[in-house]
Amino acid sequence: MKHLTVGIIHNEPIPKGDPNWESSADILAQVEAIEAALAELGQPRVRIPFTRDLSRFVSQVQAARIDIAFNLCESVDEDPLLIGHPAAVLELLGIPFTGSSAMALLLSTDKLTVKRLLSASGLRTPPFFLYEGAEVLRPAGLHFPVILKPRFQDASIGIEQESVVENSIDLLPRLEELYGRYGAILVEEYVAGREFNVSLFGYPQPRVMPLAEIDFSEFPADLHRIVSYKAKWDEDSFEYHHCPRIFPDTLPESLQYTMRHMAQECFGLFGLRDYARVDLRLDAQGRLAILEINANPCLSPDAGFPAAVAHNGMGYTEMIGEFLRLVSLRLAL
Asked: Is the pTM of the predicted complex or chain greater than 0.90?
């Protein structure tokens, strides 16, 4: 592969101590890891932050004369509604970039749209409804407990132990609190069961990486088995240290096949590209349900997607080289 100047496009993290700063700061871990891998590959590279100052961004891109880009943007100035905008600008500039298109990012970030598309396509997902600050009208067939999720946030922002609600008495007060902080809230029937992550890598036909499971076996009975914000980001919490990622090797072949198939269906349905992660739960009756569609999942070295790729025998630098290969194929298009 010829030497291409790679722009590492990233959102700017918020200051330490601000709400949810831990998840925001992780972007720099991704940037630094990718820089190191590109250096090892001998690729020229430049960091370019993406903010609402669009003219500054375009000027920096033009000055750096980048050929391709790693699009690491998870928001714009911490606004998750703008997740697709950096990709859209790169599309307008004609610069090929890693990961999904602007349209696919917008579709897969909106939890309500995800649920509706899954349901319409016959892909099983837990029953749900959306709370937008009005009276709670729980649809028939949706049973407690339920879990409450901000419609547009990712990285488990807004997901706490208290997000699992056991009864109708506690539901409205909790909804009102979360709505005041995050806006519209998705209310989803809580699936108490095993949780799996299916990573996909490649395009147009992605390879399914080894299936990962979140091991909640050390959680006490009084903790819901969820990957909360604490579990992902709070190093001082019990949850952070007691829900490791494992790669089980004793799953029935039929279950593995179904998970792979469902993940690949999601990849095509949402028009994803290059890499993704699909999160599922297996209930007590042996039924799988899709919880989340993650376009452009985190690329920090300790994150789930790189871990799955590594378990498949590919090191981090080799993974970054594969991303370069995928994006360079789009240079000629």
From this structure: yes
Kindly give, in sequence order, each residue whose CB lies less than 8 Å from that of residue 35, ignoring residues fewer than 6 positions away.
8, 45, 47
Query: Mapping DSSP to helix (H, G, I), strand (E, B) and coil, where does residue 41 land?
Result: coil
Residue that is last in its domain, among 81, 98, 115: 98
pLDDT in tens, 235-282: 999 999 999 999 999 999 999 999 999 999 999 999 999 999 999 999
The DSSP output letter for 265 is H
pLDDT digits (tens, 9 = 90+) for 138-147: 777 789 999 9
The answer to whether residues 16 and 90 belong to one domain is: yes
The conformation of residue 184, written as its DSSP 8-state character, comes to S
SS3 200: strand
Residues near 173 by Cβ (< 8 Å), separated by ≥ 6?
Answer: none
d(CA 193, CA 184): 26
If one counts every other C-beta atom within 10 angstroms of the C-beta of residue 315, the result is 12
Burial class (CB in 10 A: 0-12, 13-18, 19+), 204: exposed
* Number of neighbours of residue 188 by Cβ within 10 angstroms: 21
The span from the CA of 47 to the CA of 44, in Å, is 11
- Asked if pLDDT for residue 155 goes beyond 80, the answer is yes
On whether residue 325 sits in a domain, the answer given is no
Q: To the nearest whole percent, how much of the chain has pLDDT over 70?
A: 98
Whether 17 and 31 share a structural domain: yes
pLDDT tens for 278-295 read: 999 999 999 999 999 999
Residue showing tokens 């606004």: 79
Domain that holds residue 59: 6-98
Give the ranges where the chain is alpha helix by DSSP (H).
21-40, 54-64, 85-93, 102-109, 111-120, 168-182, 229-233, 238-241, 253-269, 304-311, 316-328
- In this structure, the answer to whether residues 52 and 75 fall within a common structural domain is yes
What CATH number has the domain bearing residue 176?
3.30.1490.20
